[in-house]
Design a protein that fits this description.
It is a single chain. The protein has about 500 residues and is of the alpha/beta class. It is built from 14 helices and 20 strands. The strands form five sheets. It has a five-stranded mixed β-sheet with strand order 2-1-3-10-11. α2 packs antiparallel against α3 and α11 runs parallel beside α12 (about 425-430). The model has no long low-confidence stretch (mean pLDDT about 95). It binds iron/sulfur cluster (SF4). Iron/sulfur cluster (SF4) binds near residues 63, 145, 147, 188 and 276.
């Protein structure tokens, strides 16, 4: 029994979910200062910077996808890890009750949400013993689903698009990392950081790749060969032009950390764990007897946090197009790729479960002219009233099998999400008169502030992230990235960055 252990772990969870560590803030500030003013990436970075400040000031979740909690715990010999595990799980459930973590643990077969972030495999806890008798170390990373879905594992030798053959060499590894960043485009909320493992087996490779994300972005790899590889990747990767959210631009990656494990002679895996800009990672060292926090890892509470954005928040350019939902076809057809829009009026959320449901059921609301937002918000109920506390977009490509049909059947005019969609949706936008708007992934606090209220909820049986929330929004900003004329910014950026990737095939 360590009296303050529970409270200390709870503090760690809340801080990790709401405040980015200084090394990530510095990298994002650098990205912001390197992007020319007025570009799409610069506008997105300003929204991100505003969001980081809002989250830290209000202790709100930085991103509505509060991710898979992964704890790395080091204990003195003899500590009761069974008790500790129970305490960590209870702290996770309490942070969820307080709205600092979204309920994110879902039964993989039934889709039922446990509601408290507890379930088989959730949270992830790794224990290790160390020889420090008087201290316990707890590190935590919260890595969301959008970036987790962009992880990649290569088995070398392999032929890679635009890069040619990747051999079993550090040069082959370099190609895999570049390919992974290019392939992720904006789907993992670029600019991201990659943890990489050379070798191991398929399981240990991914575990070690994620472990590399516990390093600070500005450290130097103690292995000179890997330090050189990391530096080489960082020297060239930002010429790809993927940019923030895949909008094109000068920062696609903010960090590359590479580890190595022995492998079997027949295998040569390169595992890449992609983390988004909302790179939430913190740690604490606790007194082993009292459980009180002795010091923080990655942050120094005595150093004041410098706001990311010292101006009056996100600035308008005056060229924004104002849209009020529900929309008619002519208005939507007048929009084109690159337009920045400000949406006001009713907006309905819908993500994986809702899209699947709508293929065989009538919608619970009239979707004619509507805005359908790919979003699984964090919501709180006070009495009879629902409040949205975090509401950024989720990755849209998962809805590609359904979206075209839903637009056609129910007359949706605005599809809002992040990362773009594919050819079937693009064709449906053109045929039926709709557009895809890319909101800034992870900007959960920024977008929650655009929600004036919740008018209702449908399909709550799917769990709060998957339900259809009836939101009322004012001046919700997003960029038209797929229009009703067959144009897609995502297709263009992928093609142009693919050509640049080709130029990096040799170095
Ligand atoms: S910032 Fe994007 S990728 Fe990261 S957790 Fe949030 S939605 Fe997912």
């Amino acid at each position: 029994m360590i009296p303050a252990f529970f409270d200390s772990v709870l503090q760690l969870i809340v801080k990790t979910s709401t405040d980015l560590p200084p090394d990530v803030r510095a990298a994002m500030a650098h990205a912001l200062s390197s992007e020319p003013d007025g570009t799409r990436s610069s506008q997105a970075l300003k929204i991100i910077a505003t969001n980081i400040d809002l989250a830290a000031n209000g202790e709100g979740a930085i991103c509505q996808d509060t991710g898979m909690p992964t704890f790395e715990i080091k204990t003195p010999v003899g500590v009761n890890q069974i008790w500790m595990k129970k305490q960590v799980r209870e702290a996770v459930a309490e942070a969820t009750r307080r709205g600092k973590l979204r309920p994110n643990s879902v039964d993989s077969i039934t889709g039922a949400n446990s509601g408290d972030n507890l379930g088989p495999g959730t949270p992830i806890l790794h224990f290790e013993q160390w020889e420090q008798d008087d201290e316990v170390e707890v590190k935590l990373i919260l890595k969301g689903g959008g970036c987790e879905n962009t992880n990649a594992q290569y088995s070398l030798p392999a032929e890679l698009p635009h890069l040619g053959r990747a051999d079993r060499s550090l040069e082959g590894v370099r190609k895999c990392i570049l390919h992974a960043v290019w392939h992720a485009q904006g789907k993992g909320c670029a600019p991201g950081a990659v943890g990489v493992c050379i070798g191991g087996d398929r399981t240990s490779g991914y575990t070690e790749a994620k472990q590399q994300l516990f390093r600070t972005l500005d450290d130097v790899n103690p292995d000179g060969r890997l330090a050189e590889l990391e530096a080489e990747v960082m020297r060239t990767v930002n010429t790809l032009g993927v940019g923030t959210m895949g909008f094109g631009g000068s920062t696609s990656l903010i960090g590359c950390k590479v580890g190595v494990l022995n492998r079997l002679p027949a295998s040569f895996f390169v595992s890449v764990a992609y983390d988004c800009w909302a790179f939430r990672r913190l740690g604490v060292v606790l007194d082993a007897k009292s459980g009180e926090i002795k010091r923080w890892i990655y942050r120094d509470p005595s150093t004041p946090v410098i706001p990311m954005f010292d101006q009056a928040g996100y600035q308008r350019t005056g060229r924004e197009v104002t849209l009020r939902t529900p929309l008619d076809e002519a208005t939507v057809r007048s929009l084109k790729v690159g337009d920045v829009v400000l949406v006001s009026g009713p907006m309905f959320t819908g993500r994986d479960a809702v899209h699947h449901h709508l293929m065989s059921h009538e919608p619970p609301v009239d979707l004619r002219g509507a805005a359908l937002y790919h979003c699984g918000p964090v919501v709180k109920k006070d009495g009879d009233r629902w409040t949205v506390t975090a509401a950024g977009p989720t990755t849209s490509i998962r809805e590609e099998p359904y979206q075209g049909e839903i637009i056609k059947r129910y007359g949706v005019r605005l599809v809002i999400g992040k990362g773009g969609m594919g050819g079937k949706t693009l064709a449906a936008l053109k045929e039926h008169g709709a557009v895809y708007l890319n909101a800034v992934g992870g900007a959960a606090q920024f977008y929650a502030n655009k929600v004036d209220g919740v008018d209702g909820v449908s399909l709550l049986e799917f769990g709060t992230p998957e339900a259809m929330w009836h939101l009322r929004v004012t001046e919700f900003p997003a960029i038209v990235t797929m229009d009703a004329h067959g144009n897609s910014l995502h297709k263009d950026v992928e093609q142009e960055s693919g050509e640049r990737l080709q130029a990096l095939a040799t170095h």
